[in-house]
Every structure is written in structure tokens, then in C-alpha cells.
Specification:
By secondary structure, the chain is α+β, with helices and mostly antiparallel strands. Helix content is about 50%, strand content about 15%. The chain contains ten helices and ten strands. The strands form three sheets. Strands 1-4-5-8 form a four-stranded mixed beta sheet. The mean pLDDT is about 95. Bound molecules: flavin-adenine dinucleotide. Flavin-adenine dinucleotide (FAD) binds near residues 129 and 368. Flavin-adenine dinucleotide (FAD) binds near residues 135, 161, 162, 204 and 365.
Length: about 375
């Protein structure tokens, strides 16, 4: 279902955009979500449809094929998509993250060559940072890119990659130099490059429609002109991308939490015990009041961080706070939604058990919530 959240949008164009997204969410996405997630099929066609509607390029400039929308508008679109179907919102967020290194750090020539194709809607991106031994400690990555004439020869295995094996391109962080963050570079890799393969999909607890897998690089030759930024700049590019990406995860979390709240309230108005609606029992009403407050607070926090980003101000600390708070709120709200529905909350005839399973991973991806606290703590210590 689309949410009924009242939104404060800056332009007529953005109001029309949100109305269109609600229509797509209600008519196209929500009716398919439960079955598609149960089947575990990656919904590639849905991304193609969204791409044609311009929803895979919203926060990027119009000159390079983007939608030219403020980040705050893009995030509210994500929130609406997440309320209807989490896998789709997460996929749009990851695709947007994967375009960021080229859009922000590529040369004009590189952008003109590749960005229109990446933002045009026919292709889907993946972001390759994590490896099995280097998750939170991402700077310890081992995938190597060795310069050989006009190419880099890439060897290594990336882990947990959203759209792994399904993406058309990867923003790849690989080691071109010394140990540690300064030896890492960012390459834009065509997924069709010989020697690049996606492994079998991971069997996940939630987001079962979203494809997550290892991506193997086995002697893959990547043209040297696909280096984004300078050699050795890859780690700071990766972190900069994650600052923006974390806001996307926060918006997904708010969308899922809103959907769980809406489902809980609707059920509690309908369900009767002891001769009255269960929403009229103070014990349950207070629980839902807390859920609603968490959702509102999380939304306000991500919008405040996005407003800083849109105004060109530093927002890294605020993005970490928004991701931390919104995903913890999502976990709490979805857990309580299961409680509101009682036994019905625990079975797949109602959507809240899916929201609950999806919430968990949002506390882990794009930096665990412990890592968000590290980021916030470092800002405080400066
Ligand atoms: C469904 C899914 C999709 C993903 N998609 C992508 C993707 O598209 N691209 C990508 O690159 N990665 C992706 N990831 C990887 C994700 O970013 C990592 O799982 C995450 O960064 C944590 O790394 P880890 O799993 O190795 O856990 P670890 O780093 O091993 O952490 C284990 C635990 O230790 C804690 N911990 C670690 N270090 C510290 C510390 N210094 N202080 C306190 N606590 C600490 C962590 O918070 C966590 O609780 C995905 C993961 C999942 C599950």
C-alpha cells in the first residue's frame, strides 16, 4: 500500500513525482511484493520499468541524464517505494550509490561516456566494497588491480554484493598500492568483462527477492581509463558514496516502519477482544503511540540531514545519525507491529513478519550501527 504521509515538497514537479510514485507503489509494486519475495525471484523487469519512468536517476544532474531532484525529494520517493516493496527501494538506493563515484569523481569525459547509460534506466549497478574478511574494516580489502599497459588486471572476491551477478556495472574498490586506505582505487567495471562472475545468491532471512552474492574477479582486464578519481583515492570515494547511501538506507527503514505502523493500526481498529477494539486498550494504544513517534522522529532526522546535503553543507555525521536512528527505529517498530497482530503477526498471511525480517539487515548494511556510532563519535572527538 502507498502511505498516507503528508509531505512538505518544494515544487509542483516534486509533488507530481510523489503522486506518480504512490500510484506505481499502490498499483504495480504492493500487489506483487509478498508473492515475489516468497518466490525469491530477482525482479529485474520492475527495475527496467522504474528506469523508464526516470526513478533510477533522481538525485543526479539533468545535464548528465539525471532527474535533477533535491536529495530530500529522492529520499521520500525511496520511502514510498520501501513501504510498498522493500527489495525495490533497496535496489534503487544501491543503484544510486553505484552511480555516485562516476557522477561525483569522474572526469567530464568519463561522465559523458558512461553516465547517461547508467542513469538512462536500462542498466543496474552494484557497489563492490566488502570482502569476506573485511566488512566493517573495509580498508583491509585484498582484491588487487595491477596496472598492465592500458589495463588493470583485477583478481579477488567481493562479498555480499547487492545485485551481484545481476548488475550491468560495478563500482569496484580494489587495491592498487600499499596496505591500508591510501592503497585503494575505484574502478568502474562493466559486468560483462571476461573474468567477472557473480556466485550463487546468498539465502537470506529477508529481502529474499533482492539478489546478494559474491562477485569474483579472475584476471579481469579493466581499461585504465575506467579509473575514477586518482589512484589511491578509492577509499575516500567509497566513504563519500556511503555518506549519501546511508541516507537512502534511512529512508528505506522509515518506509518499512511506516508500512508496519499502518498495518498494525488497521488491524488493531478491526480486531476485537473482550468485547472491544484492541486499539482501545491503553496497553496497545501506548505501544502504537510510541511506534508512530519513532517513525516521525526518524523521518525528521533523515530529512534534516538531506537538507544539509542539498544546501551544500557537511552532512556525514548527520547521515550516520539518521541511518543509526532510523534503522533501530525500524527494528523496534516492526517488532512491535508483530506484537500488535498477535499470532497473525507471526504468519505470512499478513505482511508484518516480512517487514520484521527486512528491518534486521538495515542495521547491518552500509556500515553496521556500531560503525555509525564510530563515525558519530569521531566527529564528536574532533
Ligand atoms: C543483504 C546484504 C547486502 C549487502 N550489500 C552490500 C553491497 O552491495 N556492497 C558491499 O560492499 N557490501 C554489502 N554488504 C556488506 C555489509 O556492508 C557488511 O555486512 C557490513 O559492513 C558488516 O560487515 P561484516 O558482515 O563483515 O561484519 P563484521 O565487520 O565482521 O562485524 C561483525 C560485528 O562486529 C561489530 N564490529 C566490527 N567492528 C567493530 C568496531 N570497531 N567496534 C564495535 N563493533 C564492531 C559489527 O558492528 C558487527 O556487529 C551487504 C550485506 C548484506 C547482509
Amino acid at each position: 500500500m502507498a502511505t498516507t504521509v503528508e509531505r512538505d515538497l518544494p515544487t509542483e514537479e516534486s509533488r507530481d513525482l510523489l503522486a506518480l510514485v504512490r500510484e506505481i507503489a499502490t498499483e504495480e509494486l504492493a500487489p506483487k511484493a509478498a508473492q515475489a519475495e516468497a518466490d525469491g525471484e530477482f525482479p529485474r523487469e520492475v527495475f527496467r520499468t522504474l528506469g523508464k519512468t526516470g526513478l533510477l536517476s533522481l538525485p543526479y544532474p539533468e545535464e548528465v541524464g539525471g532527474g535533477g531532484q533535491p536529495y530530500s525529494v529522492y529520499l521520500q520517493v525511496l520511502e514510498e517505494l520501501a513501504a510498498a516493496w522493500g527489495t525495490i527501494a533497496l535496489g534503487v538506493s544501491v543503484h544510486t550509490l553505484s552511480c555516485f563515484p562516476l557522477a561525483q569523481f569522474g572526469t567530464r569525459e568519463q561522465q559523458e561516456r558512461w553516465l547517461p547509460g547508467m542513469l538512462g534506466g536500462d542498466t543496474l549497478g552494484g557497489y563492490c566494497l566488502s570482502e569476506s574478511h573485511s566488512g566493517s574494516d573495509a580498508a583491509a580489502l585484498r582484491t588487487r588491480a595491477v596496472r598492465d599497459g592500458d589495463t588493470y588486471v583485477v583478481d579477488g572476491t567481493k562479498a555480499w554484493i547487492t545485485h551481484g551477478g545481476a548488475a550491468d556495472f560495478y563500482a569496484l574498490m580494489a587495491r592498487t598500492g600499499e596496505d591500508g586506505p591510501r592503497g585503494i582505487s575505484c574502478l568502474l567495471v562493466d559486468a560483462g568483462t571476461p573474468g567477472v562472475h557473480g556466485a550463487a545468491p546468498e539465502k537470506k532471512m529477508g529481502f529474499t527477492g533482492s539478489r546478494t552474492s559474491q562477485v569474483l574477479f579472475e584476471g579481469a582486464r579493466v581499461d585504465a581509463d575506467r579509473l575514477l578519481g586518482e589512484e589511491g583515492q578509492g577509499f575516500s570515494i567509497a566513504m563519500s558514496a556511503l555518506d549519501s547511501g546511508r541516507l537512502g538506507i534511512a529512508a528505506c527503514a522509515v518506509g518499512i516502519a511506516q508500512a508496519a505502523l499502518d498495518a498494525a493500526v488497521a488491524y488493531a481498529k478491526d480486531r476485537q477482544q473482550f468485547g472491544k477494539r484492541i486499539i482501545d486498550f491503553q496497553g496497545l494504544s501506548f505501544l502504537q503511540a510510541d511506534m508512530a513517534t519513532q517513525v516521525e522522529a526518524a523521518r525528521a532526522l533523515y530529512l534534516a540531514a538531506a537538507a544539509r546535503r542539498d544546501a551544500g553543507r557537511a552532512f556525514s555525521q548527520q547521515a550516520a545519525m539518521a541511518k543509526l536512528f532510523a534503522t533501530d527505529a525500524c527494528m523496534k517498530v516492526t517488532t512491535d507491529a508483530v506484537q500488535v497482530l498477535g499470532g497473525a503477526g507471526y504468519v505470512s498471511d499478513w505482511p508484518v513478519e516480512r517487514y520484521f525480517r527486512e528491518a534486521k539487515v538495515l542495521q547491518i548494511v552500509e556500515g553496521t550501527n556500531q560503525v555509525q556510532r564510530l563515525v558519530i563519535g569521531r566527529h564528536l572527538a574532533r
